[in-house]
Amino acid sequence: MPQKKWLDHILHIRPFVQTVEECTKTRMKATNTAAQKQAGPLRRLYQIKHMNGLFALVIIPYLFLFHGLLGKQLIALFQMLSRNIFPYNLIMLLLIFVMLPLALYFLVLHFANHFWCKHQHYQEKIAAALSAQMQAEQDEAQTRAALLANTTLPTCYLHSYALQKFEQYFRSHRAETLRDAIHLFEIEKNHALQQYTLYRMNGEKRIPTSFTRAYQFEQHQQPS
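Now predict its structure.
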């Protein structure tokens, strides 16, 4: 296909690609929402995958309250189980005053979260989230099928980042064919990925957008 036709073709399919990417974002958001709903409303307080700053705000007062209410009983238990062996006593100290309160905390929250999830009102929320996820997946599949029906470009390059680069190559006459455009793109992308890696290794917080977009494109290619 001549250079001009490739340029026209890229301009033609870019709206399709943008629509697919928007649908993908919607689907990912819906999937995340459904997963969170299924994990339960108390997930942020005890589930490692969903923990956030709220856990720290709850666990510290809990430990103070637990030791304040049951401190005497814990000390009595420690004295009863202690021996004249320092490593053993240290382990028992950790088990009684740290691990026991934490174990009870996670156990109580696990069952509370489980029973909350079984409540009909919350089951309706889960069903709504799963329905939204299914609809988003269907919309994404339909838009992707429409895109594939309108192009012969390799699937891995059906991304706004790649198409923008292809358009630049054809407009500037740096590429005459699609093979030339892909070759230039891979060289530029690999260079950007190397620079992105160097920035990360050096602990840089502000990474140029061009390098970040190359990294995001590469992540997009990874199987989910």
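The chain has two domains: 15-152, 153-224.
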